[in-house]
Amino acid sequence: MVFKARVNSQEAHWKQRVSVFFFFFVMKYYYEKAEESGMGAGEIYICDHSLFNRGTLYKTGDRGLLVVQEHYNKKTKARWWGPVEPRLSYDIYVSPRFHDFFEERAREKDENGLYPAISVRKIMWALRMKPLKKEIWEMEI
Asked: Does any domain span residue 62?
């Protein structure tokens, strides 16, 4: 009887390890880009910022919020901040928490003609969306 209880505890331990493996390696934790593109939200805004010169602007009336995403060119190994990918910008816009976040953060242009800016990672975190997979070349603003 004692031996059987020991086998059951080992079996339970094995099942727990399998479930942890399944959670971390099989489940889709990160945001996955959709195959189709072209559907987007916001508009491309060109500005004279010290870190970036383009971004995706979500605007209502005179108030706006600029979202930027870091891009990378594998061939030249160049990094730059620019507009958000169209499908991702749409997913951010249709998020149920976006309206409240926009009302809290959106402002009118400042004296330099700039809207408040936020990185795509930070807005996805605030909206409780699945994050983008972190790349080794990325930096944080």
From this structure: yes
Q: What is the DSSP letter of 97?
A: T
Are residues 52 and 75 located together in one domain of the fold?
yes
Q: What is the pLDDT of residues 25-36, one digit of tens each?
A: 545 565 566 555
In angstroms, the first-to-last Cα distance of the chain is: 61
Does 93 lie in the same domain as 51?
yes
Instruction: Tell me which H or E stretch contains 78.
Output: strand 78-82
What are the beta bridge partners of residue 68? 119
Residue 20, domain extent: 1-30
pTM of the model: 0.71
**CA–CA separation, 92 and 122 (whole Å):** 11
